[in-house]
Amino acid sequence: MLTGKVTTLKEGTSLPNATVSVSGGREAAADADGNFTLSVPPGKITLHVRSVGYVERGIRVGNEENNLTISLTLDDKNMNEVVVVGYSDKKRSELTSSVTVVGSDKLKDVTSNDVGSMLQGKVAGLQVVNSSGVPGAVAEIRLRGVSSVNASQSPLTVVDGIIGGNYDPSAIKKNLGYRFVLRKAVFPANPLITGMTYSFNLIMENVGYASPFNEYPAKIIMRNKTTGTEYTADAGTDVRKWYPGTVSIKISLPSDNTIPKGICALYLSLQDKYPSLAGRSEYAIRMANDSTWEEKTGYNNLHYSLTIK
User: Fold this and answer.
1) Exposure string for 168-195, b = 16+ CB within 10 A, e = fewer
2) CATH architecture label of 2-72
3) Which H or E run includes 294?
4) Collapsing DSSP states into helix, strand and coil, what is residue 144?
5) What is the DSSP letter of 166?
6) Residue 157 gets which letter from DSSP?
7) What is the per-residue DSSP string for 231-283?
8) How many CB atoms lie within 10 A of CB 48?
9) Sign of CA dihedral 155, 158, 162, 165
10) How far is it, in rounded angstroms, from Cα 22 to Cα 1?
11) How many other β-carbons are positioned within 10 Å of the β-carbon of residue 222?
């Protein structure tokens, strides 16, 4: 039997609900004070400790060591550096060209209703030319400059996935996208018991500039770790109201006699409700955290195992 405590490296404070596991599927969840007890095989074993928002750590320990203190480092790289270029997205390491992002905070002091005038002086190498003296005339945008021989000097405009689409300058500040980061997940140490309700909290942060426009029903997926069978519960939250800033979500899972006893891994599913997109993982909302996205299903792994009794 192995006992210990999980803490944060920087502050040294307890890290509740961290998952402690060994190869072979044995695992335990730390309680509200970060303490854990885990039954392990004899001899030296590798202990894996993980928690949402922290770097996973693996250490070699003996099977009879007690009062271990395991510290986890805050994951400063919890967001993948993915650059959206209008008609595709790429990792920053895969880019071969320069990419500039102009946030809404840089457009607050601009009163013009013309996109060209709004971007003037905001992007290096972008030339905005007022070729007409007519009041209200649209400015000409030159992206490559006069050195381009074969290519157009005008930028490629992509609006809602449509190349060459028409845009509404007045709506630009409102539609600069959303990006969700799971900052903290707080799970009680008690199991889900038939006849009782199990509640936990998720602390999200929308680091983008808007909330989703489409409806994405939020579901909690409980996947039995032995059989792989999945059970779904409504998360009771409207993603369209996850506005920029911190979003606190309380989720209650009702007891269900149809769910057999065992250990289930928890996932957050945010699938598009539109009939032709529902169930397609490429259109589901993906958390910006590392090691949460399950590409095959479109689920976000909460890295917590719930015991059902």
Assistant:
1) eeeebbeebebbbbbbbbebeeeebeee
2) Sandwich (2.60)
3) strand 293-294
4) coil
5) -
6) P
7) EEEE----GGG--SEEEEEEEEE---TTSPSEEEEEEEEE---STTTTT-GGG
8) 15
9) negative
10) 12
11) 22
| pTM of the predicted protein model | 0.49
Contact residues for 162 (Cβ-Cβ < 8 A; gap 6+): none
Instruction: Dig out the tokens for 217 from the structure.
Output: 């029903």
Cβ proximity of 26 and 89 under 8 Å = no
Domain 180-308 classified CATH 2.60.40?
yes
| CB within 8 Å of 117: residues ≥ 6 apart | 110, 128, 139
| Over residues 211-220, mean pLDDT | 90
Distance CA 146, CA 2 (A): 70
Q: Which two tokens stand for residue 283?
A: 């259109």
Q: What ranges do the domains of the chain cover?
A: 2-72, 82-174, 180-308
pLDDT, tens digit (0-9, with 9 covering 90-100), for 55-96: 888 888 876 677 889 999 887 654 455 555 555 555 556 665
Query: Residue 35: enclosing H or E segment and its boundaries?
Result: strand 35-38
Which residue, 82, 83, 80, is CA-closest to 289? Answer: 80
- Indicate whether 28 pLDDT > 90: no
Tokens of 92: 């920053």
Query: Which one, of 218, 298, 229, lies nearest residue 265 by Cα?
Result: 229
Identify the sign of the CA torsion 245, 210, 206, 272. Answer: positive
Please check whether the two domains, 2-72 and 180-308, share a CATH topology. Answer: yes
